[in-house]
Amino acid sequence: MRNIRVFFEKKDECKYISHLDLNRVMLRAVGKSRLPIWRTEGFNQHAYITFALPLSLGFSSDCESMDFRLLDDEMALGQIPSLLNACLPKGIRVTGCKEAKHKPAEIDSALYEMTLTSDNISTEELYSAFDEMLGCDEIAVEKKTKKGFKTINLKEYIIRCDYSVLNDGVRVSITLPAGSVTNINPTLYVSALEKRAGAEIDADIYRRGIYVKDGADFE
Amino acid sequence: MLKKEVEKFLLKVQKPGRYVGGELGAVIKNKEDVDVRFAFCFPDTYEIGMSHLGMKILYSLFNEMPYIWCERVFAPWIDMEEEMKNHGEPLYALESGDPLYEFDFIGFTLQYELSYSNILYMLDMGGIPVLSKDRKGLKNIVVAGGPNCCNPEPITDFVDLFFLGDGEEVDLEVIELYRECRKEDTTREEFLRRASKIKGVYVPSLYEVSYHDDGTVSSITAKEGAPKRIEKRVMTDMDKCFYPKDFVVPNIEIVHDRAVEEIFRGCIRGCRFCQAGFLYRPVREKSVGCINEQCRALCHNTGYDEISLSSLSSSDYSQIVPLLTKLSEWSNEENVSLSLPSLRVDGFSDEILSKIKSVRKSGLTFAPEAGSQRLRDAINKNVFEEELIETCSTAFEGGYTTVKLYFMIGLPTETYDDVAAIADLAQKVVNAYYACEHRQKGKSVRVTVSASSFVPKPFTPFQWEPQDTMDELRNKQQHLKASIKTKKITYNYHDSDTSFLEAVFARGDRKLNRVMLEAFKRGIHFDSWGDCFSLKSWLEVFESCGIDPAFYANRKRDFSEVLPWDHLDYGIKKSFLIEECEKAYQSKSSPNCREECMHCGANRYGTGVCYEKH
Strand B306-310 and strand B259-262: pairing? Predict the structure, then answer.
């Protein structure tokens, strides 16, 4: 039995699949593909699959992963992506498959690429509003936690942030803490910006990378 | 194809996955390559519509034809409606993202009366004039099929053409005719005239209805060569009937998220309140071999690990045990579970139970429908108290502690004693639990009683019966509530308001078109949803149209009255329905189709249970 991790893209129509529904979609794909996957042995037996880091509804990604235990020790892993892709909606594409190297708990940060546009203000105004916001010492926002709302300073969490004007929007690449201990959702920055700019902002968000402690790719 | 303009506001609505398409099994074609574009509209939300088997069958059937592209359309929920209206986005089909007004056919399925208002809502959102007379040229033909076509009179101003009975053949014949008419460049009217000659097609504009002074129908006259009576279509050989090998598999959770295999059409029982039991006669079964192959293909192609063996009364399938045995040859190994909905009290055997999973330890559901044996005889629900108690005892011995019982109140001939008998029956089930030696020690029993309000329907022996008034239904609900003496019985009921509106439209006539239109103008829709339904708003609409809804819901009709649906022929003789109604008055039951033929008339189709050897 091997611990296998498949990597996949989630985009287009499929970015509207919630995390809970993604689990169902994947279970059906795994069932249809007939991959020999370890199943739970409880009352409601099902293939055992887990996801390292949930993706918010509406985000696209090219670095999602799903873990399972493969019962067949001889099977070549290279054939798994095409087997699964034949059983998945086209917005989800499996791009790779290998034995899991890291534990999901080792996940430390993630890179998001956001394209910001607004019908209310010009791209230049949007850019300067963002630039100004990042120049402040404090970006205070209310964050919903299990214990209620708490104010946090978004500035502190930015690991790296590059931004520029691109075509007719502002392109932001932002690396933020991710994982089970501290997880910062990039939409918090969009809401903070909306408040400051007094404008409605559309954000097209793409997760481009998930990293472990030393900055290496989560594999 | 999801439009950028729509994506802009998708994240502002609940469950955006309803509006995006892109599922496994969705059919994408090039619109330049097809002759006919068909928008299959389900007048309710995605989760409800995607659970509907008829849509899956016709979607696959149409798309197997190279010249048709059939797409799916559902009613946008009110939050999405608001966003779409604010942004000027028309209702679109999920596959292409194209607006409804670009389609040749707009097809609705009529499953329940309370979805009628959504038909107008969807047409309007799709940029199509709601009234047939305002639609011109050979495009945007609005058609409808499904069980409610047995009395479509309240919506004849909005739909161009109705399909009566099984749709698998007649739909394609009409689409073929449309292709011809387009080649010949005929008028819309000429297409409809020719369509009316196809068996199973009802073109309402070709019929004139006149009324007596008291508001009842005096005559229904066919015009321009349309047939006097419109006969329903029947698929005679279910093994040869088209069945999909694949479903569109939704990415978000829907109501019935599993593979569905239809095992037979029709029902042998003839419960007198049940419209489906008469509309779908005669019973036609698929063979074990055919069901087995179709189930396998469906599981392989969809990836579902649960398959529901669907019909109006699944334990009445004549080969049920051989079927379950055959299926379990592969289903266990492939981790596929089987479920049998619509189990009857008397169809509940250990043999069946051991092979299905649907009956989980959590609970069992049965539908005795009435509390007293007298009333069960009157409605021809041939279920006996001893059977129910025996079945429940078996279940309790096996470790079950909850039972759900479904009943109806307001049934014809019902007295307050019959209503109180519901409580007695539930009490007997509770007692049966404590009489069981091997019941779960230290656990209490829970019996849930649900009572819905009876709605008289066309083509049933009760089609002439008045519905109880809302006050009467409320009194009966209270009487039942007061008759329950233990906390071990939970009583669920809902307000009778929706049942009243359902009763009005179920047996309505063409005068109700005016009401529908006015309701649409006032923004009424999603009537089957508690968050949207308002009887008050509807009563105001009736008032403004000068129409008394009680005329339709609460009036006793005479057997001699011309009924608004008398020109529609579902193969059941009116004389048979009258006999059944009179037997109900005498509290006499009738045998089922396999026990003895009651000569309802369905044998004229030359197939099914009428010709089985008993």
Answer: parallel
* Cα distances (angstroms) measured from residue B152 to each of B111, B204, B312, B511: 11, 9, 22, 12
B126 CB within 8 Å of a chain A CB: no
Residue B22: list chain A partners with CB under 8 A. Answer: 12-14, 89-91
Segment B306-335, tens digit of pLDDT: 899 999 998 899 999 899 999 989 998 888
Enumerate residues 325 to 344 of chain B having a beta carbon within 8 A of any beta carbon in chain A.
Answer: 335
Residue B33 contacts A, CB cutoff 8 Å = no
Asked if residue A201 and residue A140 are part of one domain, the reply reads yes
Would you call A32 and B2 a contact, using CB atoms and an 8 Å cutoff?
A: no
Contact A25 B301 (CB under 8 A): no
Cα–Cα distance, B364 to B343 (Å, whole number): 10
Length of chain A: 219
Contact, B44 vs B76, CB < 8 A? Answer: no
Nearest chain B residue to A116, by CA: B8
Counted domains in chain A: 2
ipTM, 2 decimals? Answer: 0.90
In order, the DSSP letters of B17-44 are GGG----BT-----GGG-SEEEEEEESS
3-class state of residue B397 by DSSP: helix
Rg (CA), chain B: 24
CA distances from A139 to A142, A178, B252 (A): 10, 19, 36
Residues B445-478 pLDDT 10s: 999 999 999 999 999 999 999 999 999 999 999 9
Q: What is the CATH number of the domain that holds B85?
A: 3.40.50.280
Q: How far is CA B142 from the centre of its chain?
A: 20
> Rounded distance, CA B417 to CA B410, Å?
12
A47 → chain B, closest CA residue: B335
Cβ atoms of residues A155 and A136 within 8 Å: yes
Q: A138 is in which domain, residue-wise?
A: 105-212
Residues of chain A with Cβ-Cβ distance to B335 below 8 Å are 31, 39, 45
Chain B interface, mutation test: which of A12, A23, A28, A194, most B Cβ atoms within 10 Å?
A28
Q: Is residue B86 part of a domain?
A: yes
- Domain holding B211, by residue range, is 4-231
